[in-house]
């Protein structure tokens, strides 16, 4: 007899065959088997068997899961989509070429990837608008402070400032000239032009015309 046969022959009305928990006694099963068995042996043979559930069901061994090899086409689709996600969205002409060679089996997955790209682009657009608004507000506040604290120069003020700057430049030029001439002996200066000086140094002999003899 095996353990399952012993359990099938047990009497639910016989208290001596059961523990207080409703499990088969190890002593009874061992006696019927003719050899010593353990509680674990009984559980392994029929894990759900007890006094309230006397249906003997042997635990079926787990069958190894059959792993189907992924079609080569699926690998290609996965690689194409992974590469697509790692880059910026394509321009229309580039995507049209990409789409024409894309496997039919992956079109649904391609749609999901494009939806992801669209969501990312819209999030970036919202962020850009938020940054633009921040800068505009900062610029507005800065201009308001300039208006409050920096004097506004009108056209007339600009003209007066220009005239004043020109006068200051002329004054500086005159003072510079005075500084150069200060201490200079003007009597040593020859006001003649260089060419006049050169002509004065030439020999004056023969420069006068001879006197004409008088008739008589």
Can you characterise this structure?
By secondary structure, the chain is mainly alpha-helical. Among the domains are: 3-45; 77-135, no CATH class. Helices cover 56% and strands 0% of the residues. It contains 8 helices and no strands. The longest helix is centred in the middle third of the chain and has 43 residues, at 107-149. The protein starts with a helix and ends in a 16-residue tail after the last helix. The mean pLDDT is 79.
Furnish the topology, listing elements before pairings.
Blueprint: H1 3-8, H2 26-33, H3 39-45, H4 72-85, H5 92-100, H6 107-149, H7 155-181, H8 194-200
List the keywords.
216 residues; mainly alpha
Summarize the structure.
The protein has helices spanning 3-8, 26-33, 39-45, 72-85, 92-100, 107-149, 155-181, 194-200. With 216 residues, it is mainly α.
Overall morphology? rod-shaped
Beta-strand percentage range = under 5%
Tell me the series of helices and strands, N- to C-terminal: HHHHHHHH
Proportion of residues in helical segments: 55-70%
Largest sheet: none
User: What is the residue-averaged pLDDT?
Assistant: 79
Number of helices: 8
Straight-line distance between termini = 193 Å
Task: Write down how many β-strands occur, each being a DSSP E stretch of 2 or more residues.
Answer: 0
Radius of gyration: 58 Å
Q: Uncertain segments of ≥5 residues (pLDDT<50)?
A: none
Structural class: mainly alpha
